[in-house]
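Hi all, long-time lurker, first post. I run a small reading group and we've been trying to get comfortable going from sequence to structure in the token notation. Rather than ask abstract questions, I figured I'd post a concrete chain and ask someone more experienced to write out its structure so we can walk through it together at our next meeting. Sequence below, copied exactly:
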Amino acid sequence: MVQVSRHRIERVEDALAAEREKRRKLFVEYFDTSRASARHHATAVAAIVLAGQAKSDEPLSRAWARALQHYDIGGNQNGQLDDQIKAARQLRPKIMGSEKASTKFTDIFRAAPVWLLQFTGMAWDATLLKFELPDTYRRLSWGSAGYEEARRWPLLPTGILEAGDLIPPNDARWIWIIAFCQTTVPILDEHTLALADEEYRSQPVDPILEGLSLILEMESNPERKLSRYEKRRLRKACERLSRSSA
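-- Answer (accepted) --
Happy to help. Here is the structure in token form:
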């Protein structure tokens, strides 16, 4: 009986170790992919800041077109991610030169309007690529159509942030807006995040780490439905983040 019990324990421990390694690899893969996307996305937004003359009451696609024209970038720019990535690759040497990316992005976005930084989700880019942004926490009048466009990250929004029905103050969509578009937090390495995710599943952890773990899952698996408990924990995490950013 003792031998059987020990064998079963070893099997359980092996299964848990395999699951931990699987989740660690998923975190690493997700962050590698997200960082690559963020580099192209941030480059495109940098071009808009420098040469797009973006206006909050004008579709952002027009500012993007002006930026491409300024830098003499041609091709079919019809709102497809592949076209945006191709343009960003051509823009990168023209904008970045030989400067370190984090330094250059920090300098470019220092004077960018808050509405543009929020609408394009630059807080998430800054978190992934570790560059600094000015304070992006400000309650703007987000519209439902603008929200849906922002959710297409890393594809640039084409419309207007305020387009569509006004999102009410207590609407659940503010959870994503605060976490993704308004709040920049120092990102942890993938190993630490994986450990935090594992700890979150076994016992209560810091609300911000718990919220970050849930947000990562939502981004990597958009079809995932949160339970009432998870929604409540995520809301608390976002409240903590909003207070720390105020």
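A couple of things your group might point at:
The longest helix spans residues 2-51.
The chain has a mean pLDDT of 81.
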